[in-house]
UniProtKB/TrEMBL annotation:
Pfam family, any one: Cupin_2
InterPro entries according to UniProt: Cupin_2, RmlC-like_jellyroll, RmlC_Cupin_sf
This protein's record includes keyword Signal: yes
The protein, known as: Cupin domain-containing protein
Organism lineage string: Bacteria, Pseudomonadati, Pseudomonadota, Alphaproteobacteria, Sphingomonadales
Signal peptide as annotated in the record: 1-27
Domain Cupin type-2 span(s) in chain numbering: 74-142
Protein source organism: Sphingomonas sediminicola
Keywords: Signal
Amino acid sequence: MFNLKTKLATAAIAVAAMGSFATPAVAGQCSTAGASDLANAPTMPKGVTDDVIGSINLGSEIGVDGRQLRTRRLVVQPGGIVPLHSHKDRPALIYVISGSITEHSSACGAPIDHKAGDISREADGLSHYWENHGNVPAVLLSSDVFHGQ
């Protein structure tokens, strides 16, 4: 039987251990202020697989009818492209599991490089596309709120 002192020591060790795990870094920030010209941005995917791994109907959960929260696994091969798309009315968080990928954003005058462990916030009407300039596949988890069935 554990006494109070032992329980407190165990809890303190558990909290300290949790703090030692790496937390995701916020993705590279925009280094060049101003908007990017996306007029010649790619509009077709290339070398990308996009699999839904889970979704929740938010209407029955929190009363947001017609919306779903979903998580997808994207694998972008070397030379692959996630084409130009908008996050108007579709906020998302993208977590880079492995590899690296370059984002071309309407909100930034220069490309943004994302590496494993980075998380990218996509909201506020942002438009962008992604390219894998690396030698290995980039594996991403994308969680977004979208208009679903």
